[in-house]
Design brief:
The complex is a heterodimer of chains A (288) and B (809).
Chain A: H1 22-40, H2 52-74, H3 84-106, H4 114-147, H5 152-170, H6 175-185, H7 194-199, H8 209-220, H9 229-286
Chain B: E1 3-10, H1 14-26, E2 30-33, H2 41-44, E3 51-52, E4 70-71, H3 72-86, E5 90-91, E6 98-100, E7 106-110, E8 114-123, E9 144-145, E10 158-162, H4 166-176, E11 180-184, H5 195-206, E12 210-213, E13 217-222, E14 225-230, E15 233-238, E16 241-244, H6 252-257, E17 284-286, H7 296-310, H8 320-327, H9 336-346, H10 348-351, H11 355-364, E18 366-370, E19 375-377, E20 386-391, E21 394-397, E22 407-409, E23 414-415, H12 417-422, E24 429-432, E25 436-441, H13 443-452, H14 454-474, H15 483-487, E26 489-494, E27 499-501, E28 509-515, E29 517-524, E30 527-535, E31 539-540, E32 555-558, E33 562-568, H16 569-578, H17 580-606, H18 614-623, E34 632-636, H19 645-653, E35 661-668, E36 671-675, E37 694-696, E38 702-704, H20 714-718, E39 725-727, H21 739-746, E40 766-768, H22 781-784, E41 791-794, H23 796-805
Parallel strand pairs in B: 1-2, 1-8, 2-5, 8-17, 9-16, 10-11, 10-16, 11-12
Antiparallel strand pairs in B: 3-4, 6-7, 7-8, 13-14, 14-15, 18-25, 19-24, 20-23, 20-25, 21-22, 21-24, 26-33, 27-32, 28-31, 28-33, 29-30, 29-32, 34-36, 34-41, 35-36, 37-38, 39-40
Helix pairs in contact in B: 1-3, 1-7, 4-5, 13-14, 16-17
Classes of the chains: A mainly alpha (288), B alpha+beta (809).
Amino acid sequence: MASSANEPVSIHRSFLVWRGGYYGKVALALSALAIVGYWIDHPSGPPNGGSWLGYAYGTIGLGLIGWLAWFGIRRRRYGGQGPLEGWMSAHVYLGLALIVIATLHTGFRFHWNVHTLAFVLMAIVILSGVFGAYAFVRYPAMMTTNRAGSTLKTMAAELASLDQQCRDLALTFDDEVAALVVQATEDYGGKFTFREGLLGRGPNLLAGATGAAIAKLRDQVGGVGNAQPAEVLPLVQNLTKRATVVVKMRRDWRYRAQLLLWRAVHVPLTIALVIALGIHVFAVFYYR
Amino acid sequence: MTEHYQVAIIGSGPGGLSAAVTAAEQGLSHVLLERTNHLSDTIYKYQKGKKVMAHPMRLPLQGSMPFEEGFREGILENWNIAAEKSGAHIRLNAEVRKMSGQRGSFQLTLPGDEIITADEVILAIGLQGNLRKVPVPGADREWVQYQLDDPDAYQNERIAIIGAGDAGIENAIALASHNEVSIVNRQPDFSRAKPGNVAAIEKAIRSGQIRAYPNSAPARIDDEALILDTAEGQSIVPVDRIIARLGAIPPRKFLEEAGIKFPSDDPAAVPELNETYECNVPGLYIIGALAGFTLIKQAVNQGHEIIRRMAGDPIPPADEDLLRQRFDPAFPGAAVNDVLTYLREHVPVLAGLTMLQLREAMLESSIFRFAKGDTVFKRGDYTSSLWNIAEGSAHVLINEARPDMAVRIGTAEFFGELGLISGRRRSATVIAGEPAVMVEIPRRTMRRLQASVKAIKAELDRVAMRRIVHTGLARDRPISDIEDVIAGAELKRYKAFETICAEGDPVDALYFLRTGSATVTRVENGREVALNYIAAGSLFGERGLLEDGATRAATIRATVACEAVRVDATVVRASMDRMPELRAIFENAVQSQLDQTVRSALARAGQTQNKVDETALTSFLMKQGVGEATNAFIIDEGLCTRCGNCESACASTHDGISRVNRDAGQRAMSVLLPVACRHCENPHCMSDCPVDAITRAPTGEVFINQQTCIGCSNCANNCPYGVINMVDPTSGQKEPQNWLTWLLDSVGLPTPAPKPHDHNAPHAMKAVKCDLCKDTGGSPSCVAACPTGAAIRVAPETYMSWLRDGRGQ
């Protein structure tokens, strides 16, 4: 049961299958239509944004970008607005369709200018959005599994209590061992920063003070320290247990950071995109 | 020489004092006799600084005695001033030992065998002068007390509380932090008390803070010991102090010796009065708590009205105008008394009430005139009032497509009792069958009437039982066809989680669930599997009734406290033999159930993705009380990105204060049940709101009226799910909306904390909870704001059926 327990309950439905994936079908049809149009169109010059089809795709792209960016505002308009889930579903699928339409709009002509800059910004925004959608689909279940019914707050409380127990147990050993144990209880596998959350690998506590403390404790049995296994075992168990709690907390932190941090790219670059797009449109019509 | 007065007033509480003040103003020769050495002993004995309410708010105050909502001290002071200013003739320390005579010749015996005479007497002694005593030897010890003024006055004592009503529980809990407290309860549980108090005392007992002696009664009180008779024999409880909270009752002996008759032997019964508050002894008037009126304002008005009538200057009762407004739509311009008489003659439920009870009931009820075909209520409405037909008839549309199959309900009958009892949606639309006059009595009034007039409850139960059996078994046939089944029906009550019938038991009965809900489970491969969820109003246990010697194929268990109508299998079989159509009904029922089982199994087989343990999830939800919900907020953490948009949306829709708390919620598997209102079938919060600020909208939302809420926190204490918060409504943090915070929040960075609310500023607390965003005109904003589909709001029966059969497109 444990392995299956955190699969989504089938009666709650993901935004990806909202109304049977309606907007996915809309986006697919739109893209297919755009490709067919591009294929059968034979403009006088090479395919470019200035042909009538290029203008059409540009207008559709512009409309889509405006509408997609509006989601940031819509997301916080509460009350009497209808389900956000539908908007979310449309945002994801139509955002993907935008890649196709905008690329066809360029006619595959890229240069070092503001026009290509707008395209590149758009591409980055969409890619970060793809990662966001992936994170939204994957991480909740992983997070739930990792938390196993607990919360970050209760995990922190559990950790604090385990650390205290470790330190108390360490008092019965000599100073060197006790110092190592205290050091181990201060090892949280790095800082809880966004950067760590986004880039940090799962910490390996055994490579640090925890591993050293456990190795030292093993040496205490019999030989040098004359300790009995029964004296050492609780402390080793506690150190191991706190290490697993730390790993869980760090993993939770990573999921949370990744659920949030893609937006640090997605949102500011959307704003940059809107500005670049404004210049692009202005330039196209002014210098025509 | 004996002194003689036109009127003697006994008791100086709000009623007596108001009478005396008015008598002084009207120039009547009068005397006010008070047993203690101060006025208004009951309120005098309130806990220091206690807030006193002035209900009912809309009832005007008559006479010149001041009274408005305030604190004990201020109210007592105002009354003392009013008494002095009016020049009322008051005698303190003048307990009336004996009373005899009637109009013109009353004789009252005071201490020192002093006798005074009076033409008329107003008895306003309340109940608190006659607290129920512990009826055992040794109860006269001075450390056996009957009230608790200041719990902090006792430290490190061994204290036994006798009596497990609300007062006893509240005292026990107040004392438990500094003393060793035990509570003696004659009953096995605390079911008599308010749910909030029950939860609190049960928690204190579980944690070992308070020791409980259930099924116990005091046998004797010795030095430092209370001897109890318990179910297991005698038990000795060492004590330093005993506080008995056994309630207050009318001083029956004194009253009966004066010639006053009581309607029953029930010690809590109150004397019968006519509409001028006169009892069976001519010239003797009884007002206030002794007459069954517990509110201060009522007593003040009654004292005033009686004296005005005696002085030959009568005024209409305080509620006259309110009643006229109530009656005006149906009886324009009619005299209030004529309408009341009409109601007594035409509405049997109201016939047994005294005129005073009737006036009180009608203050909250409505009279309607319907034209033929007018809709009274619609199927699916969430109303829970009882409808009485005074004239004309009503048609219950069992099948809306077939109006010819409507069930007719005639003059002097009532309908809507199922909604009243179960708290569920109306099960059928009702229209007026011909021009009709109907009286709608709201649920809370009906509950009060049922408690005070036993015949009403019995009649309601009887009719409800007939109708539930009729609609469940043979709604298309005349009720006379199944009279024998109805005769064999009995009402059974079940506690939460009690087994109604177990797998393997012989099939010995058929059930109709009247209130609550139940689950059907079966053991498959050594594992209990949830098969079905039964909502109030359904029939169950019919499978196997057709075969002799069949056993139950599944266990049926109450999810909350339930009431079910049980009909013995032999009765059902006998009528089936007589009536082959009834057999067909059962065969159809069994077939459709089989079809459903097959469908479910197929749906389950098709759902390879669905690995959720239905039974574990069902039992989790039922343990969390979702069985009594009508609309529960459920989040799937397998989809939830923890963005908190649901809480933000809730706060934004409701003055910046969220009514959803995910952190405090309960989890099982990937399902999170946040702390949020479930809009229970029979809402616990509504049971004890002194101002009736909590209502259920016809569409089902249970909501608190912020204008009328007085912040007493009864509802918050009574809610078993902790979904009601007491907040200062001005403290809500409106989201700071500037571009910087917007951007920071958008990219997931912490926003600067808004300016903290000044908690020292004067504020009034209000109770707030989810209202399903009924005023926004859309779906609940929490669900609407969920970007991933993790959050849903759903009725438990719908959720269970989705869980079983999958959710269609």
